[in-house]
Amino acid sequence: SGLNQLEIDQIKKSKPDANLYSWIDSNWHHFRPSVEYAPFKDLRVRKALQLAIDYAQIMDGFFGAGWGYQAALSPGYPDGWKPEKVKSLPGYNPDTKAADRAEAQKLMTAAGYPNGKGIDFQIILQNTSGTAYPENSQRFQAQMTQVFPEMKVGLKPYADNASFSVPQAKGEFQMVSYVITAAPDSVIEMQSQYYTGGGRNYGHFSDKNLDALIDKAQVELKTDARNAMMEEFQGKFMTDWVPMFVLGAQPARVMVQGNFAGYDTTAGTWYGYSANTKICRSGEILKMVPLRSPT
């Protein structure tokens, strides 16, 4: 499900009738700051970083085309902002990147860290083959050096998931580079990621207004009212909280040989890891099944 363009071109040469299926997945990449690191307690610092990141440069660099812009909620949720909307927001909008970075520098200065001076942190990541974390982190590191020349960003790689998972689960980091598979429901996702004490709130973010909004949404049974709460959540995520720097939703790209029906009716955001589980039957296999008469 992670074919790059070179692999796609190679397959097309050897199997000209192969079909390429591509969709936005339910896995989203991010940098998660720990609010236990003093500078990250300040909303102005978190907002400055959110504005300064060049999301397209990071995601294009590893995945190429086909990924989706994402802010608070996966675009696969009915109540989640779609990639087109997220792409228009400050920080995410490629056309306003220069202006957004100028605003980021002002915010950083107002917080007491001109040019990032006084901010020195490490990003923990898995350094395993085929994952996006090393490249994402290196590109982020280079970008922050450009925008905030006195900021120091170090990288602390772990050789495998087992060793990486321990400090992440304990919250023993200043920032983490990782990927999350979205939960099946938007409110459950927000409770897990950002609610005080949430199961995946590894950065220990806490805000009483966020908690109150999630509490209301969890017991709201009317769809329109619930959607309105998630709309409010997404807006405040960008302006009042900024607990996470979501890079985007990754693409799934699969080549299927020509005699397979493929993913025509099964592909989509809400099939997590669907490349392994949702392919249709093979036409050639079906032709081999003999038809028997009732006698």
- Overall mean pLDDT: 92
* Class per helix and strand makeup: alpha/beta
Number of strands: 5
The proportion of strand residues reads: 15-25%
**What is the overall number of helices?**
11
Distance between the termini: 46 Å
Rg of Cα set = 21 Å
Descriptive overview:
It is built from eleven helices and five strands; from the N terminus they run αβααααβαβαβαααβα. Helix 8 packs antiparallel against helix 9. It has 295 residues and is an alpha/beta fold.
Considering the chains and any ligands shown, give keywords for the structure.
295 residues; five-stranded mixed sheet
Q: In a few lines, what is going on in this structure?
A:
With 295 residues, the chain is of the alpha/beta class.
SSE diagram, text form:
Layout (H helix, E strand, L loop, with lengths): L4 H10 L4 E15 L9 H10 L2 H9 L19 H5 L9 H14 L9 E7 L6 H15 L4 E7 L2 H10 L4 E7 L4 H9 L13 H11 L4 H19 L3 E12 L26 H6 L7
Parallel strand pairs: 2-3, 2-4
Antiparallel strand pairs: 1-4, 1-5
